[in-house]
Amino acid sequence: MSNISSNTNLQAYRASVLHFQQDPAFHEKAYAWHEDGLLIVEDGRIVAAGEYAQLHTSLPEGIDVIDYRGKLIVPGFIDTHIHYPQTDMIASPAPGLLPWLETYTFPTERQFADINHSAQVAHFFIDELLRCGTTTAMVYCTVHPESVEAFFAESEARNLRMVAGKVLMDRNCAEFLRDTAEGGIRESEELIKKWHKRGRQLYAITPRFAPTSSDAQMQLAGELAQAYPDTFLQTHVAENTDEVAWVKSLYPKARSYLDVYDQYGMLRPRAMYGHCIWLDDADRARMAETQSAVAMCPTSNFFLGSGLFNFERADAQQVSLSLATDVGGGTSFSMLRTMNEAYKMARLGGTYLPALRMFYLATLGGARSMQLEGTIGNFGKDAEADFIVLDPQATPLLARRTSHTESLDELLFALALLGDDRTVAATYAAGKLVHQRQAGHN
Ligand code: GUN
Ligand code: ZN
Fold it and tell me: Which segments constitute the Amidohydrolase-related domain (predicted)?
């Protein structure tokens, strides 16, 4: 460790340390696990992650090692699909996606024309993400540019790596939420120029979904996505059977719902497709070929009764997968709770999701599906130091269960199935403590 300087910006954390180098579904040696581990951070980046016994002798004199023994350090969770304006309408009852959008979503999103309201919700939303250990998210704002300004300002103030974008929608929604084909694209381009790659902020071109954009808007959104290839793109696809039928009637010439986006040039690296439940093999082949990625949203899919994600076919066709909450369609900000429901979704579909895979999907899987491996998602040298401290004793029940887990798999499984925001003892972003659980909050 000769390259460690005597810089005072060096920090070291002792705990069990887990992170991934590969997808455990396809590789035997996919992860590193250091039961008595040390994570070394300097100037907001990872210097090393390894065995305490090997690494601690390399630390310069006078560095205090922060002692998290008994806890696990893992990379910060990555939530690849979430709507910050829906924070205040989480857990709103409706019989399915389309009535839920009409009754709750659109009226709630109307309020984000006001930048002060946007700022206040963005502040709460980011607090909640950090409480749950999520350090990066792909975030839908609303149709109002103010909602995007407020979100990025809040994320930038905390130095978080976030991806967000202005919703594009110029038809099939209330008048008060409509932009125009040209106006929406112009506003998106202005936001790209202002925010994309400013500090840790990244922009996502965000057509809400095919039914709420005209042909003209879809065409321009696809062109914008080609003109700015290093931006992200996010949208919804094949979530619900009524929605799929609606898209078929709106775009009768398309081979499938996904094909609508394909026709407009929206399948590409850094394109994140929410849900992907009602895809067929030809769709999945196009996703894999174009390096487009899936954001699986199990709590939302159960809540809205949308359907079950097909893990078996997605894996057989090597589609890039990630895990997401989809709040407010999703019922929790917690990626641990989301793992719990992903596990059950896999079981109902006849497959089995090991705990290591769930933790992969919530960390490196998310980073890879966003083409951000090396930047976030694991503890490779020089990666950004976004990490969380998980407490296996966070609740009486977790403590009791984890007191006799006999393998890493069992320990992670207990955390995934019993864990939530209380399990996150601390959250660090770019090496800085950004959340610490208060004593007595379990
Ligand atoms: N499809 C279009 N908009 C939305 C949304 O806000 N939430 C979900 N779950 N699906 C959508
Ligand atoms: Zn969504």
Answer: 73-434
